[in-house]
């Protein structure tokens, strides 16, 4: 959608205070018009038909109908960009990740205490994500995400099983490292990539823009969908094949050398590109430490974080690629890398895992 006209937003939240605050925040941006609010999904359903909004903000927990059930029905019957408003709790993290799996574009964290001050502090992020959502591609899941990692007992012909069987004997090395970065839309894009990795694939290091309280739930979710072991990184731990590492608790993740092996380094330094963790921090460390033994990829995401780091990786001899615009929810980060000439290849999401593995084989 073009933002030559104001983006029309419908706010769905059972809290009158939150509805008022979000209305004030969003109406304060000249590119956004709040066309209505709704206290529950049933009222929202009628207002969607009547007001035809471009974007919904949707609370996770509401009366009369669960927010996830409403989102599922909405994506099935009337797909529309949705920004979730979620709480910074373990339960909120789990539910938000489920919402992203159902097709929500992005989310904004809502503080559990002093909501008024907390939401105002997030005003810039809220308006940016709503405007981004208006331009995003709504991804309607064609199937529910799998609930278990691929295995030889999975149905014949499944993509994960075929990748595992075809590649299982080929990855017995600690010499390759795959580095992935993502933001908006990335929680599901990373699932798609990792679930196609065999159990003995090269080690993977990941930075996904998430609040610190979400990292454990995100790692657990990816681990359930992957044959490789996905975990929160611990400071100083060795990076091993068949494992994927994400930063713990909103810390930057770096890769450092230790003789002939690599280790995770958690960094509590300031945000980079307004993010913590930041993809650029990870990618620059990979360029410096791993060099030509690395393979880097930027998946869907808003902004330009990771573009300069991917360029540094390419200049250090690493193979680099990005997700294409057609399969990205938001082509901000991949597009920025493309403009810099950081990526050797541009691929649709469904081909990225296969290409990462083939590059690892070719360079082994």
Automatic annotation (TrEMBL):
Signal peptide: none annotated. Coiled coil: none annotated. GO terms for molecular function: phosphorelay response regulator activity; protein-glutamate methylesterase activity; protein-glutamine glutaminase activity. It is found in: Cytoplasm. The active site is at residues 183, 209, 305. Involved in chemotaxis. Part of a chemotaxis signal transduction system that modulates chemotaxis in response to various stimuli. Catalyzes the demethylation of specific methylglutamate residues introduced into the chemoreceptors (methyl-accepting chemotaxis proteins or MCP) by CheR. Also mediates the irreversible deamidation of specific glutamine residues to glutamic acid. Belongs to the CheB family. This is Protein-glutamate methylesterase/protein-glutamine glutaminase. It comes from Stenotrophomonas ginsengisoli. The lineage of its organism: Bacteria, Pseudomonadati, Pseudomonadota, Gammaproteobacteria, Lysobacterales.
């Amino acid at each position: 959608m073009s933002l030559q006209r104001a983006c029309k937003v419908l706010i769905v939240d059972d809290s009158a205070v939150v509805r008022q605050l979000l209305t004030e925040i969003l109406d304060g941006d000249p590119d956004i018009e709040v066309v209505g609010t709704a206290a529950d999904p049933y009222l929202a359903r009628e207002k969607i038909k009547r007001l035809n909004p471009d974007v919904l903000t949707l609370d996770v927990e509401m009366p009369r109908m669960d927010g996830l059930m409403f989102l599922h029905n909405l994506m099935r019957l009337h797909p529309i960009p949705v920004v979730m408003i979620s709480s910074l709790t373990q339960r909120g993290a789990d539910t938000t990740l489920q919402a992203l799996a159902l097709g929500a574009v992005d989310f904004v964290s809502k503080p559990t205490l002093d909501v008024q001050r907390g939401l105002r502090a997030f005003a810039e992020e809220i308006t940016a994500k709503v405007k981004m959502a208006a331009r995003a591609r709504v991804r309607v899941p064609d199937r529910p995400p799998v609930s278990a990692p691929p295995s030889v007992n999975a149905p014949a012909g499944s993509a994960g099983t075929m990748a595992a069987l075809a590649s299982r004997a080929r990855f017995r090395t600690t010499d390759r490292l795959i580095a992935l970065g993502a933001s908006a839309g990335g929680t599901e894009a990373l699932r798609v990539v990792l679930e196609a990795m065999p159990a003995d694939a090269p080690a993977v290091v990941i930075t996904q823009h998430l609040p610190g309280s979400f990292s454990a739930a995100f790692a657990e979710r990816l681990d359930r969908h992957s044959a490789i072991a996905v975990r929160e990184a611990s400071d100083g731990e060795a990076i091993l094949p068949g494992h994927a590492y994400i930063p713990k608790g909103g810390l930057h993740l770096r890769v450092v050398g230790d003789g002939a092996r690599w280790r995770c380094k958690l960094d509590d330094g300031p945000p980079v590109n307004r993010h913590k963790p930041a993809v650029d921090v990870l990618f620059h460390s990979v360029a410096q430490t791993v060099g030509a033994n690395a393979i880097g990829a930027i998946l869907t995401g808003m902004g330009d974080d990771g573009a300069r780091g991917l360029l540094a990786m390419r200049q250090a001899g690493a193979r680099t690629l990005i997700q294409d615009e057609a399969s990205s929810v938001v082509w901000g980060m991949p597009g920025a890398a493309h403009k810099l000439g950081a990526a050797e290849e541009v691929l649709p999401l469904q081909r990225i895992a296969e290409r990462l593995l083939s590059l690892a084989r070719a360079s082994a």
